[in-house]
Every structure is written in structure tokens, then in C-alpha cells.
Design a protein that fits this description.
single chain; 7 strands; 7% strand; 3-stranded antiparallel sheet; 399 residues; two-stranded antiparallel ribbon; mainly alpha
């Protein structure tokens, strides 16, 4: 295949994104005049190309920026390492510009050693966002082997008494076996590895983890706790907390997004109607929440004390938008697609798309990482970009 070096790939991509901004009846009034126009697309295309220019370094995956705009760089063991790489694969899929696949291959290679890292539950985020997308695009058998090996490693964190995969290893003086709602997202790696290998154990672990989380993580209003800690001897719940939210009983925005997306994805593989119903219930909680802003980009926690002066979380919005598109595919209910369009229209506006000239390899600003630790507040974060791009692709695939 001849490499398409002359294609204006970022322009093509942003013209796709522009479709979210046209004719969206639910767009926020405050953003209607700020929606990306053609001249902004052309201007923005240059800084999108900067993703290709970001220097290769196995210890410097771009994760976020600090308050001064300096890039926070992390090694492959960081849970976010797969998102920048995955974004490159997604852009290639949209544009067929091989500059992006070439760069994605180089970054993906740096993550291979994580297939043996049994100190983390984030194998899906790291390996499936990189090697998973790469395998779907290239059919490279070595990628498939790495995915299966990674699933073998992740499976070692499963406890048959608790019937869940252990999330974190820190804070052992307080927690015996913590499981976080985020861990739903890592099940995709296991489901796919089961298909690739023919070994049903990965499927069984993933399905059982989803069932245990469904049983214990959710409140009566279908919001979720962040962390559920289990007794390793009895399997009973020891405590329920919200580690990165405002307080234990609050609704941390990104946690709710992980749940919505995670259960739609779990339904994709299992066809367990309870998983689909839970995704719908979470969607209803989010879409109808009294503290959801007009533009549908949530505050970092739905119960944060200083709303409407609290930071937003564009990453939560992007995850919700992508999950809602999958939910629409299974239900045919247009309210999910309309709400996703509403989010994407506003994320595609000049309010959220980075417009400065600082040459940072990110697309969206106004994400919140860990508010209780005052870490990554109201700035760009790599996973916001990844799920934003995924939502663009999913919307295009509907056509």
C-alpha cells in the first residue's frame, strides 16, 4: 500500500467531528456561537498534527498537563499509557493516513512489557487500547498473542471467593480486596482474549466480575460507589467508599461513566439482559440529574459542594457519549443517540477543544483527574481524547 503522506488527515478528522455540531437541537445556548467553523478546523488541524511530532520515548507517554502547561509524562506501567497510542490508531482508522499507524506501531511496541505486569488491574486500558486497536486494524498475529498473554496475567488477580478481579494493591492497612468501578472497563480485554484463544476461562472471569459489581457497587438510585472492599476469607463486603469523589455517598462523574460504558460493553459479549438494563439505569441517572449542566458536560462530581463553580470533567462526558452510542445500538432508543450528540456537539466547541498555541499533544481541555488530591484539575487528559475519538468513530459507523 502506498503511504498517503499528502492527505490532510487532521482536517478530514475534524470535518467528521464537525458533524456533531450541525443541526444538533440540544446544543447548549452558550456554545451555539462558539461551535467550530471551517476556519477553526483549518487552524486546529496544525496542532492535531502535533501528535505525530511528539517525540518517541518509552518513559514519556503524554498523560496530561500541569498548571503551567508542561506535559506530564509517564512510563508504560502507568494506567494511562495506552490512551495516546490508542488515539493514534483511532485517527488512522478514520483517515487511512499511514503516518498515524506508523507512529502508533512505534508507541505500541513500548507497551508490550506490560503483558507481564501483575501488579495492576489496568491491563485493558494499557494493552487493549493499544494492541487491541492495533490488532483490529493490522491483523498482526503477534498483537493477538500479546493480548492473550496480558489476559493470562490479569486473570491472576481474580479471587474465586470474592468472585472479582482485585483492583488496587495500595492502602493495605485499610482494604483487603478493593474493587473499583473503573475495573469494568478492563473486562473487554478478557472477553476478546477468550475469543482469540478459545479459552473460556477469561470470559467466565469477566462475566462473574460484572455480576459481582452489579450486586454490590450500586445504590438504589443507580449511582455507584467508587470502591467496594471485600473480605478475602468470606467474600463479604467490608466497606463502600468513593475514593476520588467528593465524599463516600457522592456520585463521582467519571465513575458513573465507567459504569454506563462498562455494562453496555459487558452486554455486547454476554447478552445478559441485566447488564443492558443496568447501563440503561445509569444512563437515566446521568441524563436526568438535577446537577447536570446545560451543555451536558458534568461537573467532576454530581454532588460537589460549589456547583456551578466546580470544575467540569470532559473525560467523563466523552466516556458517556461513547457508551450511549453503544447503548443506542442495542436498544434502538434515539434518546441515547440524541444525548450523545448533545455531548459531542459541545465537546467539539471552542470551549472544550484546545485552541492555544502551546504544542501539547491533546485535543480536549477541562477534564478532572483526581480532585481530592488536587491532581489534573480542569485540563487536558489523554483518556478524554481517546473516548472522544472513539465516539466520533462509533457515530460514523452507525451510518
Amino acid at each position: 500500500m502506498i503511504k498517503q503522506k499528502k492527505i490532510k488527515a487532521p482536517i478530514v478528522l475534524l470535518l467528521i467531528i464537525l458533524t456533531f455540531c450541525v443541526g444538533c437541537k440540544d446544543a447548549s445556548p452558550e456554545n451555539k456561537e462558539e461551535t467550530i467553523e471551517q476556519d477553526t478546523v483549518l487552524k486546529y488541524s496544525d496542532r492535531f498534527s502535533y501528535l505525530l511530532e511528539y517525540p518517541l520515548d518509552s518513559l514519556a507517554f503524554p498523560r496530561s498537563t500541569d498548571g503551567n502547561g508542561s506535559i506530564k509524562k509517564v512510563p508504560s506501567k502507568d494506567w494511562t499509557s495506552g490512551f495516546f497510542t490508542g488515539s493514534l490508531w483511532l485517527i488512522y482508522k478514520m483517515t487511512q493516513d499511514e503516518r498515524y499507524s506508523d507512529k502508533a506501531k512505534e508507541w505500541t511496541a513500548f507497551i508490550e512489557k506490560e503483558k507481564y505486569n501483575d501488579k495492576t488491574h489496568d491491563m485493558g486500558f494499557k494493552v487493549f487500547c493499544s494492541f487491541g486497536n492495533g490488532y483490529k486494524i493490522t491483523n498482526d498475529e503477534s498483537y493477538k498473542k500479546i493480548i492473550i498473554e496480558s489476559a493470562q496475567t490479569l486473570a491472576t488477580r481474580y479471587n474465586d471467593t470474592v468472585k472479582s478481579i482485585r483492583s488496587w494493591d495500595f492502602n493495605k492497612e485499610e482494604w483487603q480486596f478493593p474493587v473499583i468501578i473503573d475495573n469494568m472497563m478492563n473486562l473487554e480485554l478478557l472477553f476478546e482474549a477468550s475469543t482469540y484463544s478459545g479459552d473460556g476461562k477469561y470470559y467466565e472471569i469477566a462475566e462473574q466480575h460484572a455480576k459481582t459489581t452489579l450486586k454490590n457497587h450500586f445504590r438504589n438510585n443507580n449511582s455507584s460507589y467508587h470502591v467496594v472492599d471485600y473480605d478475602t476469607i468470606t467474600g463479604d463486603v467490608r466497606s463502600k467508599v468513593t475514593h476520588q469523589g467528593f465524599r463516600n455517598e457522592s456520585s463521582w462523574a467519571r465513575g458513573q461513566a465507567w459504569g454506563l460504558y462498562g455494562y453496555a460493553m459487558a452486554y455486547r459479549y454476554t447478552k445478559n439482559i441485566k447488564f443492558l438494563e443496568q447501563s440503561k439505569k445509569i444512563a437515566s441517572f446521568l441524563m436526568n440529574h438535577v446537577n447536570l449542566p446545560e451543555d451536558a458536560i458534568p461537573y467532576w462530581d454530581f454532588d460537589a459542594p460549589n456547583i456551578p463553580s466546580e470544575p467540569r470533567d470532559a473525560s467523563a462526558a466523552a466516556i458517556i457519549a461513547s457508551g450511549l452510542i453503544e447503548l443506542y445500538e442495542y436498544t434502538g432508543d434515539k434518546k441515547y443517540l440524541d444525548f450523545s450528540d448533545r455531548i459531542m456537539s459541545n465537546l467539539s466547541s471552542m470551549k472544550y477543544v484546545i485552541q492555544n498555541e502551546s504544542n501539547i499533544p491533546f485535543i480536549l481541555s477541562h477534564s478532572t483527574g483526581n480532585w481530592p488530591k488536587n491532581d489534573e484539575i480542569n485540563g487536558p487528559i489523554s483518556y478524554a481524547d481517546y473516548y472522544f475519538l472513539e465516539a466520533v468513530l462509533r457515530k460514523e459507523n452507525l451510518k
